[in-house]
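ingest -> validate -> predict -> emit
validate: passed (alphabet ok, no gaps, 695 aa)
predict: started
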Amino acid sequence: MVIASGCVSKPSLHDNAELLRLAPYLVGRARRGVVGSSRYARSLRDAIRHAAQDPQRRPVLISGEPGLEKDNLAALIHHGSPSRHQLMLRLDGALLKADGSELFGSGDGQDPGLLELLGEGALLIDKIDQVQPALQQRLVQLAQNGCAARLFFTAETSVPALDRCCTLIRVPPLRVRRQDLGEWLRFGVRQRSRKLGWSRPPQVPEAVVKRLQSYDFPNNLRELETLIYRALQQMRRQESTEPWPAVLPDDVFWTAPRVQRLRFDIWRWKPQLREWMRSPWLWNGLLFGLVSWLFVLVNLWLWWGPQDRAHNGALNLFWAWWWPLILLGFPLVGRLWCSFCPFMVWGEIVQRLVQQLGWPPSRWPRRDSDLWASPLLAGGLTLILLWEELCNLQNTAWLSSCLLLLITAGAVIGSLRFEKRFWCRYLCPVGGMNGVFAKLAITELRAQVGTCSGSCSTYACFKGGPADGEGLATAGCPLGTHPAHLTDNRNCVLCLTCVQACPHRSVQLSLRPPAADIQREMSLPPGEPGLLLVLAGDVCLHHWHRLLGWSPLAPASLVEGPWLPRLAAACLALALPSALFLLARLWFSLPRLQRTLYGLLPLVWALLLARHLPIGMAEAGLLLPVSGLEGAPFWSADPHVIAFCQSAAVLVGWLGAVLLLRRQLANSPLAWLSASCLALLVAGAGRWLVAGLPV
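emit:
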C-alpha cells in the first residue's frame, strides 16, 4: 500500500481504522532539499546525511529560529534513511495534551496511542519547547530509553535535557547565510512559476539579490516564500494570451519597511481631504485642461516674442519663477512637479492616441534599467547644464524653448516605445534631479504592508485594473512602483493614482521629519551619486569665473569667443566636485564617501537655491512689466536682502548636513566631526562663489 507519494506502510498495519487514525499526522515526501552552496548549507547537508545513515537510529533534535522549515529537514533525514518505507508522523507539540494520551494511549489497552500504532516508523514532535512540562519530561525519558520508532524533535529555544541524548542539528537563519539567498530566490521562483503554468521561469537579476541581502528576513524561509509569491502575483498577466515575464524587476520584491517614527497622517486628521485629492476630475482638469495648453502658449511666446529676459514674460516665468520655486518645493512636496510636468502630459496624450489607434506601447524592459539608464541620465543633465551656460539660455528665448521641446520629445518617444512613464523614471534629466532632492521632503506617500499583503490580491495600485469597491479604475502607478515597496521618495511623484485604485484605504499621506529617507543602511540606486556630483558641479559651472578666471588660459566669457576654450573651461568647472570625490577615494572607502555625499545633500540643495535666488528675487516681481503691461505693479528685492537670504539658505543647508552626517556616520564620531568640518568648508566656499555676482 502506497501512502503519500511513495511511503509504504508496514505490513502489520492492515486495519483501515488504524490507518484512518494515523492519516491526519502523516508526513509525505520532503518539500525541498537544502538549497545553497555556502559552507552553512554544505554543513547542514552533511549533518542531514549523517543522521539519515545513523545505524543506531538515535533521536534527532533540530533547533533554529521560526520559519526555517525544521520539519522539512526531519522529513529529509527520514526519507534518506534505510527506514524510508516506514510511516512518518508529525505532531504539533503546542497542541499535545498534558497527559500525552495521543502518544501513549489511555493506559487501559483499549485505546492504543500513536506510538504503538506507528511501530518502527518515525515520529516528529514539532516545537518540543512548547510542550507541557510534564509531557516534555516523559518525552525526554523516551528519547533516553529508546523505543521502536525513531524520534525527531524541533525547537526554537534550547532544551538542555534533550541535548545530551539526541543528535543535534542547528539550522542557521537566513540572514547568516546571505550567500545562499540568490539560489533560494531562483529556486523558489522556479517552483512557483511551475504552479502558475509558466513553462519558463523569469530571471532574478543580481541587483535584486544584492538588495534583498541587506534585509534580515526575521521569518526566514517562510517570509521568503511569501515575498516570492507576492512578486509573481504582481507580474502575473491579466490576459492569458500574454507571455510570462522574462525578468522580475526590483519593484515587485517588497519587504517589511523599517519602523517609521514621528509620522502625522494628514488624511486621518482631515478625511474629506483624501476624497478631494483623489478625485479624477481634479487631476484630469489640471493636466489635460490647463497644463498641456499653457505649455503650448509658453513655447509660442518664447519663439515669437522678444528674445531677452527683460522683455519676454515667458522667459521670466521659466528662469525667475520655475527654477527657484521648484527648488523651494523639494523639502515640502518632493517630486510633486513630475505629476503635472508638461513634458510627460504630452507624452501621455500621445500614448493614449496611439493606443486608440491600435498600437499599444511595449511593456517596460524589466531588467535593472538603472544600470544603463543612470549614465545616460547624468550625461543628459551634464549636456543641459553646459548648453545653458555656453549658449546663454537664460537670456535667449528660442533656445530655452528648444530645451523644453527637446525634453518633451524624449518624453513622447519614451511614451511611444514603452508603457506608462518609462522616460520620467529612468531617462528624464529633470526627473533625475527631482528624485534626488525628493529624499529631503517632509511628505511621503506609503502603503501599509500588512493591509496590502493580507487584503489585496489584485495589486491594482501597481498594475492598474477596473474599479474595486471604493477603488477607481486606473492604469496603475505611472512609475511602475508599488506604494508598499517604496523605501524613499525617489520613485513617487505624488500623483495619487495608487490612492485612487486602492479599495482598502491602505495608502497614507503623512508628514515626517525632513530627509527621513537618508539612512545609513539605505540602498543606493546605481548612478545616483554621480548625478548628485553633477548637480553640485552646476554651482561651480555658473560661477566658473571665480574659480578659473585667474588662469591666463581662461576665456573672457563662456558666451562669446572661440568655442573650444569656452567648452574646456565649462567642462573643467562642472567636473570639479567629481574630481574631488575621485581624489578622496585614494584615502577613504567608497561606502563611507557615499554616505558622506548623501549627508551633504541638504547643503547641495541650499547652494543650488542660493545660485537661483538672485534672479528669482530680483526679477520674478517684474513679470507683468516685462510681459508688455507698462505701468503694471512690480517688485524687486534689494541686493542686501538677496544676500541675506542666500546666507540663510546656506546656513540651513549646512545645519541639515551636520545632522544627516551624524546619522550616516554614527559609528565613528571622529569621522562625523571631520565630515562636519568638510561641510563647513564647502558651505563657506559655496557662499563665496554665489556672493555678489550678476545673475
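The chain has five domains: 2-170, 178-252, 280-364+381-439, 443-511, 570-690.
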